[in-house]
Amino acid sequence: MHSKPLTAERYQMPVFHLVDKTLANSYSTVIWDFDKKSLKIDRGLIVTKDENDYRRFRITKDGVSPRSIPGLGPIFWLTGDEHDEVGHITEDPVTRTEMYEKRMRKLELADREIPLTDKARLYGPEDADITLVGWGSTKGVLIDVMNMLSKEGYRVNFLQLKMFVPFPSDFVKSVLGKGQLIIDVESNYDAQAAGVIRERTGIEVRHKVVKVTGRPIFVDEVYEAVKKILKDHDEKIILMKGP
Prior knowledge:
The chain has 7 helices and 6 strands. By secondary structure, it is α/β, with parallel strands linked by helices. It has a 6-stranded mixed sheet with strand order 1-3-2-4-5-6, sandwiched between helices. The two termini are 35 Å apart. The model has no long low-confidence stretch (mean pLDDT 92).
């Protein structure tokens, strides 16, 4: 959770948590320093009084329409098909385009308001000869590998991706666009994050370390994979360690 209002309610859109198998099937004890007094819950733009001209899907500048909570405000039409501002189903191409543009403006608003620290984080020196890229359960492993390599004299940093939509394109481009060796580490066969990076920034991550056995990724196997890439310039290494 970031310091801004809750994402799903503020921007009226679904939120999907980025979780891989290792995170989903593991548990740990953590210190949670949570100050309840600092928590501010903002339900977003809500209408509670009846309005004669209430339009649930009103076209707005920022893409967020005033919403009514069922039972607490004006009633409205709701459908899963394309609709007009009132909520009635429509196939009018002009209305369809306006509604689509409205929804996309919500993503632009979210991109502006959500803090960068909630989208991505860079560990280690800003200027590095090697950048490790990962998301999810790879975080702890890649920080350990970064520290191991740093002790050997390599200049290494780690780019943790935390949000893919909206994607922090400018920040990722600034981190990865310095001519360093980039190594992507993921728990899927296609190195999906590397594909998103290429799509959103134009930067191709050539070196990929992946694991698809369902087992966690271990520090020693990533360390050995990185050293092999440095030596033999492998473009894809498939990890296999585990019972």
